[in-house]
Amino acid sequence: MSNPAVLTPDLTSEMVEFWGFKYKQAKQEVEDLQTRLANDQFLQDVVTSLRDELKIAQQKLEAMSAEKANLIIQVGRLNADRVALQHQASSLATEAVRQRTEAVIELLKPAPSFLDDSFNPVPIGFHSAKQLVSTLPRDVTNYPWQLYFIPQPPNAIPLRVDSPGQPGYWFYPFNLCPMDSPFELIVEVESNKWLYFGRYLTRPFQGYEMKLSEWLTLDEQTKMIFCSRVADHKLQAGQHASYATQIEIRQRYDTGHWNIPCYTLECVEYSIALYEAMAVAAAKLLHCEQEVLISRQSLGKRRRTPSSSCGFEAKSTKVEGSKFDQADVTQDGETAGVDGTQDDLDLTRAQGE
User: Fold this and answer.
1) Structural domain containing residue 270
2) Inside any domain, residue 70
3) pTM for the model
4) For residue 87, which of 24, 44, 263, 269 sits 20 to 30 Å off, Cα-Cα?
5) Neighbouring-strand partners of residue 148
């Protein structure tokens, strides 16, 4: 029979250390297992939550897809209604123009012919009405008739006169129409191309204000420019109404609550002398502009005062609407009095309720 092992102090210490290590190792494994089990439960909870959210998202996506399809159908219907409304407005506007034109002819009767059959006035090219008037000879600028330069849309609402010397009508700002005396009418028929129509008298054309259908057929820029000027007409020079005020006025016109008054245009004379003087002045302006351009190019594009033969610095400025004196006013456009001056006064006024 073998003798039992004798535990010495050193051996006892080693055993304690060994089993202490085993205990810590086992304890760590238990803790790791518990952590893993907890993490697995957390992951399961996360997966379950994500599945629920995915299900909700799918339901929302299906609802949004159905709503989108419904909106597409509604937009299609609205576009169809808009096209139909535009077509209807265009037809009504055409009929309003026809009725108003017939009424003008009936009121003014066949106008006498102020032009010989052999005389065919053509548009005259120039950039600035003020410069043109300042270039006209004194025997033209000294007579008492005002010169009214009416620009193209969007800077003015288009007028209706078939040809020079013929009657017609225009939509002019309320209470600012030049009804006291005849005036010379010059209209921009193409960009920077102006046609002299003759000397005209204008009077209110009651019952033939612009129809809502005609207003709706105007382009957006023309309508907004007109509304902005209506909003500005009571303000001091250089001041402008807020955008909210312009939109409010626009809504009044869009709903037919306000309309634009109509005035007849009756030709009473045609000045061939003025037409020829305008053509000569325009040619002189063109010559001066070319001289200035050549001078600038020769001086390396440095600015230089033109020669006294031109009397102005050539500008390539589009005739634009602004606020002018009633005496020298044009409808929404640049104005020039017979003395070549340009004043800063009211231009437009809204038709009252």
Assistant:
1) 118-328
2) yes
3) 0.66
4) 263
5) 185
